[in-house]
């Protein structure tokens, strides 16, 4: 069947033609590329990245904290007072956040009325009443101007304001008033749940000893599983000293990392803790209100300095799955093929004998000359037959 396909052609198998070249440089390059691909596949993809596992990189996390400790400090005009967990462990300012008071400035017995503004407020200084327009708030101050310029002390004149009087005390202690807070302990209970594998784990050690959490303290080398942390150790692990950070406050990041290989026993899925300094200043104000016998409202104002602990939970879990394993091995096989392509390019375009290798690798297919002549003769006979007279054809 001329010009067509043989009946059995669909079942033929066509294979590539390989040419063996005695080129040691290209051969060495080929082996080096293969070794590189093999090292990448075994070392990075399989051992480091665990490319044969399906992963869940976003666990659901729950964090519960509890601070313990006690200290005594002078609270300005409010007198000497004890600070326990209900005082220094202020409520969280956000998700997974705890604030520990380490220093404060107290302003006792404030009542609403008129008084001179503090000379430390730039907008409050004046020389005459015209500098204090009535009804204007003091920028970054403590109240509303009454229109009078009054003496704050023998050396400063400031605008009189309507607000909480006397104005806030701004004298900062030279040393943190709650220096004992460095020995306080912070208990962090964290539970993670990897929804893809329906696997949950808690960072608290399963123990029958009821005194374990009351006596253990986290140590990265000797007791890395205890979830009870000493404040001093956390600050030092973040690269700071407690006394420096406690004076003006700061922020410490507590990172809990879970890296769980679920192809191994669940007991080997353990958290890792790390600490980092996020900010060197942190404070806010709070007040307690009360009425005197004359039903006049008073408050004790506290400007609190301390350490804010921001707790974040990260991690991933992995488990063997046939799909990522097949993808990883398929990628490795493809890279082995890429090594051959690179060597072919070097051999055919960069080698000194590139023309010779080109001719050996690629063969131009031509039809045999004998069949061409026979085909031409057959064409001529058909042409001669077609030109015979009609009478000769009848004979």
Briefly say what this structure is.
The protein has about 400 residues and is α+β, with helices and mostly antiparallel strands.
Structure description:
The chain has 395 residues and is α+β, with helices and mostly antiparallel strands. It is 27% helix and 33% strand. It folds into 2 domains: 76 residues, Orthogonal Bundle (Helix Hairpins), CATH 1.10.287; 212 residues, Sandwich (atp-gated p2x4 ion channel fold). It is built from 9 helices and 15 strands. Strands 1, 5, 6, 7, 8, 12, 13, 14 and 15 form a 9-stranded mixed β-sheet that branches. β7 and β8 form a beta hairpin. The chain is elongated, with a radius of gyration of 42 Å. The two termini are 33 Å apart. The C terminus is likely disordered.
For the record, give the distance between the C-alpha atoms at the N and C termini, rounded to a whole number: 33 Å
How many structural domains does the protein architecture include?
A: 2
Radius of gyration: 42 Å
Based on CA inertia axes, which overall geometry fits? elongated
Taking the sheet with the most strands, its summary is: 9 strands, mixed
CATH superfamily of the largest domain: atp-gated p2x4 ion channel domain
Can you count the beta strands?
15
Helical coverage, percent range? 25-40%
Uncertain regions spanning at least 5 consecutive residues: 382-395
Number of helices: 9
Oligomer classification = single chain
* Helix/strand order: HEEEEHEEEEEEHEHHEEEEHHHH
CATH architecture classification name of the largest domain:
Sandwich
- Helix/strand-derived category reads alpha+beta
CATH fold naming of the largest domain: atp-gated p2x4 ion channel fold
CATH class of the largest domain: Mainly Beta
């Amino acid at each position: 069947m001329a010009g067509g396909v043989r009946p059995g052609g669909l079942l033929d198998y066509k294979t590539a033609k390989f040419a063996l070249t005695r080129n040691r440089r290209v051969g060495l390059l080929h082996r080096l590329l293969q070794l590189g691909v093999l090292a990448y596949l075994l070392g990075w993809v399989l051992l480091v990245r665990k490319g044969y596992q399906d992963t869940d990189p976003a666990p659901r996390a729950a964090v519960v904290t509890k601070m313990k400790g006690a200290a005594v400090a002078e609270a300005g005009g409010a007198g000497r007072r004890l600070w326990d967990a209900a005082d220094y462990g202020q409520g969280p300012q956000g998700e997974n956040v705890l604030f520990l008071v380490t220093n404060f400035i107290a302003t006792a017995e404030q009542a609403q009325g008129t008084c001179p503004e503090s000379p430390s407020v730039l907008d409050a200084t004046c020389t005459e009443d015209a500098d204090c327009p009535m009804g204007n708030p003091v920028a970054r101050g403590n109240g509303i101007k009454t229109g009078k310029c009054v003496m704050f002390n023998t050396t400063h004149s400031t605008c009189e304001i309507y607000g909480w009087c006397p104005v806030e005390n701004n004298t900062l202690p030279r040393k943190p008033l709650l220096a004992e807070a460095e020995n306080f302990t912070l208990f962090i209970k964290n539970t993670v749940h990897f929804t893809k594998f329906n696997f949950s784990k808690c960072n608290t050690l399963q123990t029958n000893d009821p005194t374990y959490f009351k006596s253990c303290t986290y140590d990265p080398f000797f007791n890395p599983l205890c979830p009870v942390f000493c404040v001093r150790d956390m600050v030092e692990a973040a690269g700071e000293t407690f006394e420096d950070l406690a004076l003006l406050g700061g922020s410490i990041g507590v990172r809990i990392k879970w890296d769980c290989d679920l192809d191994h026993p669940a007991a080997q899925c353990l958290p890792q803790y790390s600490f980092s300094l996020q900010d060197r200043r942190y404070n806010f104000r709070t007040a307690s209100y009360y009425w005197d016998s004359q039903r006049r409202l008073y408050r004790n104002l506290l400007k609190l300095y301390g350490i804010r602990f921001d707790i974040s939970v990260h991690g991933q879990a992995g488990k063997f799955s046939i799909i990522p394993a097949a993808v990883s091995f398929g990628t490795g096989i493809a890279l082995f093929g890429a090594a051959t392509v690179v060597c072919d390019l070097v051999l055919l375009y960069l080698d000194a004998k590139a023309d010779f290798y080109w001719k050996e690798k690629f063969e131009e297919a031509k039809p045999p000359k004998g069949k061409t002549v026979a085909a031409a003769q057959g064409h001529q006979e058909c042409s001669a037959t077609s030109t015979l007279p009609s009478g000769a054809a009848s004979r």
